[in-house]
Design a protein that fits this description.
CATH class of the largest domain: Alpha Beta
Distance between the termini: 52 Å
Structural class: alpha/beta
CATH topology of the largest domain: Rossmann fold
Number of domains: 2
Order of helices and strands: HHHEEEHEHEHEHHHHHEHEHH
CATH superfamily of the largest domain: Alpha/Beta hydrolase fold, catalytic domain
Number of helices: 14
Number of strands: 8
Strand content: 5-15%
Radius of gyration: 20 Å
């Protein structure tokens, strides 16, 4: 009942420039979790006071229709019946109609399906959305040996057969985009459209060397030894300063990844060499680049756009490598417009 202290802490958490500034979405999530323990009267008061402070700071969220729930959940968990076991979450379309499309969201190296939560919930307004954990990540099986990109594409095809049971729109970021390219080339009947975000069809020698050095560091010292430098590549400097809680969450995801799974997949993507085969991708393709992405810069996205006949290239302003987490609303808008055009 110490609402004066509540106000002080919440105002500090929402004030830009503080050490641990939270986004409106993170405050909402915290209040929802606290409400479970605090009870209805305190929860109502907490939300009302939070809205008052947001209004005072000029960041009050606008009212939303009842059909657009603030917290639509994370979907139901499913596992493949075939091995290696793969885990995914499935969100059914919330509009009550038959889903317009099935969309698969494939995450970056060192993340898991939860990387997509904000984007997945937006797209699930009209689409069935499947978010898999790539082998070696999340709740999917950990490999005993290095993987190849072809094996990861075979995993993706198997997941589509068992869970989607129809051709999908594959949305892949970084590693997920590499899997998407391989999938569309090797298993074209599984894919009816592609979104390739912050990814590449091939690394230069310097890129392969950098990945090799990270693999060696993880083998010797664990993922904690590369997590801070990875966040510097994942997010722009301005975002890291103003959204430290979001960055910390993704850093924890990386550090919680099984090192063997990380290394196996890092080996798979390190040798990607698909540029000469891009002309085999014949489905509509949206290519998303991050303006400040140093890992897969605009030049790499341009190679994809030149190689894939039915493609369009869009750049997300201000975003680094993990664009879907840095600006999920803009990312969702781009993908939503693309999906609606199919």
């Amino acid at each position: 009942g110490r609402w004066d202290e509540f106000d002080i802490h919440l105002r500090g958490a929402l004030t830009p420039g503080n050490a641990h500034t939270l986004s409106v979405e993170e405050v909402r999530e915290a209040l929802i979790q606290i409400s479970i323990y605090a009870g209805v009267p305190a929860a109502n008061t907490g939300f009302a006071r939070a809205l008052g402070i947001m209004k005072e700071l000029g960041i009050e969220p606008p009212p939303r229709p009842a059909t657009e729930a603030w917290h639509p959940g994370v979907g139901r968990s499913v596992f493949t019946s075939t091995r290696p076991k793969l885990h995914a979450t499935v969100r059914e379309a919330r509009n009550g109609d038959e889903a317009a499309h099935t969309v698969v969201l494939s995450h970056a190296l060192g993340q898991d399906s939860s990387m997509w939560d904000a984007v997945a919930n937006d797209l699930a307004a009209t689409c069935r959305v499947i978010c898999p954990d790539t082998r070696g990540h999340g709740r999917s099986q950990i490999p005993n040996d290095p993987l190849s990109l072809a094996e990861l594409a075979a995993d993706a095809a198997r997941l589509i057969d068992e869970v989607a049971q129809e051709p999908v729109i594959w949305v892949g970021l970084s590693m997920g985009g590499m899997i998407g390219q391989e999938l569309a080339i090797r298993h074209p009947e599984k894919v009816k459209a592609l979104v390739l975000s912050n990814t590449t069809s091939a690394y230069p020698e310097s890129g392969r060397v950098a990945i090799g050095q990270r693999i060696a560091t993880v083998e010797s010292h664990g993922l904690g030894a590369v997590s801070t430098s990875t966040m510097a590549r994942f997010f722009s400097e301005s975002f890291r300063q103003t959204h430290s809680a979001t960055v910390a969450r993704h850093q924890r995801l990386l550090e919680a990844t099984d090192p063997e799974g990380y290394i196996a997949c890092a080996i798979a993507i390190c040798e990607i060499d698909l540029t000469s085969q891009l002309n085999q991708i014949r489905v509509p393709t949206l290519i998303i680049a991050g303006e400040r992405d140093e890992s897969t810069p605009l030049e790499m996205a341009s190679v994809l756009a030149r190689g894939i006949a039915r493609s369009q290239l869009v750049t997300l302003s201000g975003c680094a490598h993990l664009s879907a987490a840095e600006n999920p609303s803009a990312f969702s808008d781009l993908v939503g417009e693309f999906v609606a055009s199919l």
